[in-house]
Amino acid sequence: MTTPTDRTPRLLSRGSWPEVRRIGDILRTETVGGVLLLAAAVLALAWANSPWSDAYRRISDFEIGPAGLHLDLSLAQWAADGLLAIFFFVAGLELKREFVAGDLREPRRALLPVAAALGGMTVPAVIYTVFNARTGDGALAGWAIPTATDIAFALAVLGVINTHLPAAMRTFLLTLAVVDDLLAIVIIAVFYTGSLHFGPLLLALAPLAVFGLLVQRRVRSWWLLLPLAVVTWALVHASGVHATVAGVALAFTVPVLRRKPGPGTGLAEHFEHRFRPLSAGVAVPVFAFFAAGVSIAGAGGLGATLTDSVAVGVVVGLVVGKAVGVFGATWLVQRFSRARLAEGIDWWDVFGLALLAGVGFTVSLLIGELAFGAGSERDDHTKIGVLLGSLLAALLATVVLRARNRHYRRLCTVEERDSDADGVPDVYQERPGLA
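Below the sequence we write its predicted structure tokens.
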């Protein structure tokens, strides 16, 4: 007999077994990518502050590409404009799949990560604005810097902790970061587009439409799709809109569902499998290598950075703003929807993930360059602020999550029990339709 308590909506409840298994595969790839990202950032930071820093600058500033097409970009620009388009293409595929075929196609499941992402972007932006309201000299242009969450960096931290997060919380963390990425690319397109040229932007619709037509017909031939994607990217770049927007636009044209029901993967999932290793293992680490190489001495020293309101706003926004925004939005959803946390999940778990959401890196560094100009003193201060804020957020999250580690391990043990050896944990067979 069902009691009223049984009908109470549950936040962070367990999803379906296929979705949990898919999320696990994604997280393993992103965790490896996070380790590579950290290694690239450390190498760049060490090199930029070594006696051989001039060589690092020469490599970053080395220009390559056809000048006639206005694509004679430096290697650092190719990393930011070109490689990150792959990152946002994968993020767009993941987001579309989650809301079309994933567990988040249900509005009640989608509400929490979307609200948490919005809270996690709004509060840091407000905090940064408060710190820089009277600074002047264009400081407010960086209001969006502390709003981003770097999923690869955050998962690398989880790998170091060696924790056993419940599957629902891993899904929550991933989906929050994906929604965060989408909101970030909207912010970049709307607020960080300098001069807009409508001619190339309108022309970009042609190869984008052909790309969409082909993928809707389930065409997978790379020799057809790749040139169309490159032309779309080049035209968006020429329009003045940041070229990474092209990656999201292309991803949203890819169908998620199979045309005929049956075994196998849809086209969006097929592209994810192909491009996620390239994004996590190459695109993001290479961008981190060129973006994180800030000379502390060239920025006026650590003391000058820590007294700059821009850097302070970034640090406080990432460490405090993200935690308050994500945790507060989760609490508000629970309060006004009269829902409760799923059994076995505690508010300390939510707080630990809210702190971990403050690990910003890739998109934060990108927005810093767009706001203040790559290589400027304020951009250098921003980079140091992003690195310091991300490190503090990671350390605080580690303290909280390690304190919960034993509880996580117990939950994970229960979830993974498979008494009938059918490959599906018993807990996913307790309710019909979940396995």
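The longest strand covers residues 10-11.
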